[in-house]
Design a protein that fits this description.
Elements: E1 5-11, E2 14-23, H1 28-42, H2 47-54, E3 59-62, E4 77-79, E5 83-85, E6 95-98, E7 109-114, E8 119-124, E9 129-134, E10 164-167, E11 178-181
Parallel strand pairs: 1-7
Antiparallel strand pairs: 1-2, 2-6, 3-5, 4-5, 7-8, 8-9, 10-11
Length: 183
């Protein structure tokens, strides 16, 4: 059984509009490392090419180690270095939706790739922002230690009215980060 999600990009003209593809198996603990792998190897660190590759099909799963010989089920097709499609023929168009209506999709997660800064914004299935992950080396410290991956809330709305306290959350239960309001 998979963890349904959508992976895509916000429309530059209207950031609340999302163009994305369905991925049948997309838990954050596995999908984010796979997107990093595809970005680093298959698309040679070109975020726009990563977006094009992801938006080309609906996916059973995304994995950078997929080869033409990867075993597939009927109706699936392996795409080298990207993953296993859910369609063996011409793909349907990408799903376009307003982020505030993400709950209608029945997905657990929404991942939005940002080509401007090579990050992935993770949203819950109802469109609420949960965190941002860099595509480059996740172990490389950022200039602001409070923004370290797996340690801080990156959303300013949590800092309003009373601030927030950063708490760690176990990676298997949620993203490897979390926020808790105080005051």
């Amino acid at each position: 059984m998979g963890t349904p999600c959508y992976v895509g990009v916000s429309d530059p003209a209207g950031p609340a509009i999302v163009r994305a593809r369905y991925v049948h198996d997309g838990c954050p603990s596995s999908l984010i490392p796979q997107l990093r792998g595809i970005w680093a190897t298959t698309t040679r660190r070109d975020t726009n090419t990563l977006i094009e590759a992801v938006l080309a099909h609906d996916w059973a799963y995304l994995r950078s180690d997929t080869t033409p010989n990867t075993r597939s089920l009927p109706g699936q097709h392996p795409i080298s270095g990207v993953g296993m499609t859910l369609d063996a023929t011409d793909p349907e168009p990408a799903t376009v939706f307003p982020l505030h209506r993400a709950v209608d999709l029945g997905a657990s997660w929404i991942y939005l790739i940002n080509p401007a800064d090579s990050t992935i914004a993770v949203h819950s299935g109802d469109g609420e922002p949960l965190g941002t992950h860099r595509l480059d080396d996740p172990a490389k410290p950022e200039e602001n230690p409070a923004r370290r991956l797996h340690a801080a809330c990156l959303f300013s709305r949590h800092a309003a009215s009373g601030g927030h306290t950063v708490t760690r959350v176990r990676p298997r239960r949620r993203l490897a980060m979390g926020c808790r309001r105080t005051g």
